[in-house]
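Cross-posted from the bioinformatics board.
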Amino acid sequence: MTDTVDASRGARLPRSARRKQLLAAAQEVFVSNGYHAAAMDDIAVRAGVSKPVLYQHFPGKLDLYLALLDTHAEDVLGRVRRALAETDDNRIRVHNVLTAYFDFVDGEDRGDSGAFRLIFESDLGNEPAVRERVDRVGRLTMQAVADTVAADTGLSREQAELLSVALTGAAQITATWWLDANRPIPKAEAVRLLETLQWRGISHFPLQGTERPGG
Amino acid sequence: MTDTVDASRGARLPRSARRKQLLAAAQEVFVSNGYHAAAMDDIAVRAGVSKPVLYQHFPGKLDLYLALLDTHAEDVLGRVRRALAETDDNRIRVHNVLTAYFDFVDGEDRGDSGAFRLIFESDLGNEPAVRERVDRVGRLTMQAVADTVAADTGLSREQAELLSVALTGAAQITATWWLDANRPIPKAEAVRLLETLQWRGISHFPLQGTERPGG
DNA sequence: ACTCGATGTTACCCGGCAGTAGCAGCCGCC
DNA sequence: GGCGGCTGCTACTGCCGGGTAACATCGAGT
């Protein structure tokens, strides 16, 4: 998108501005190539700068990656928590959480091209520091949802967590799929369909005995 | 688990037996380290053999990985398709698909330790050959479900596909989470809970107007 | 028991890339 | 107006790991 390259090759920049620019360049390269296929040279060139400059701002490749990861982890986490806190109507909560995931994935507003892939599709899950951060996002969002589910259904904590994983996981997977499929239907419609699906599924728990065979 | 190493260092084996053994060793290493952190030396040592033997059976690291990927891709795909074909009762279909995912992930019967991670958590998604195979599994399972959903709900193809992604995605994510959380509840109970959630969600589509606010 | 080919081994090559040493130019400050 | 330090660059090192060349060993057939 933004060809930051050769616009200002050789120009001096204050530290904080340079840092932001490097992070932006790194994000583009990491997102489009993944961690392993991304060379530090690529990132430097992308930022219109040479490699040692990168090392003046970040001690190593992993640290650079983690800095990005942390930023976006806080972003999703905040969105989901706000989605739940904004109301006490559970149906609206379902709606808001779905919207949160779709907005996060669809970085239409921000220039943020595909930052969500760093978290949802990292190719560095075996690095402990990365795994810890990725797991943390999943765990905390799930628990935020599970708090409500457990409180309002009377299910055990384990049961509530399983259902919450189903709800947040579906939101994440569908949002990603919707984007990769080039937005086959409008965002609002996608959210509305999923909201109906999930609300019908979760709203009357734990009433048992919905036996109704046939197709 | 099975320390195939040094049991028979130096022993000659017929080609097909050796090949199976190499695939088994490769799977263990790829699963526990991921593609990038797995060295061909590791795999060879794991199989109690030296590196060139590996190259007598597979032209390169990627081919070895793809061979494993193909095997397990067919496995899940077959399980889900059978789950749908075994009945025409849609509620049982939901049950069967969930069971298919949980059984696939929980390789209790086979020695198959964590093979599902190769497909659901590959760290080589940027390699086109890998991406193609992983996408194919997701796409075909989704479409198999979407065929039924579209037929029985009257939704548009795009809408049916979105909901199908939600259903299969939730099955995949919850099964993986359940295993990683060390099976917090029995498999049958997890399936039953999710079956209820999903069946309530999907069964009466596309009836609109389930307005019922409040918590 | 000698040969021949399949099976294995040791020991190497070499390319890619993270990280670094040492040099060059720009700017403010006395 | 030249000196110091900050910003940046070119050019290198070192290592890890995929892939290979050349040599060794076993066993079947005659």
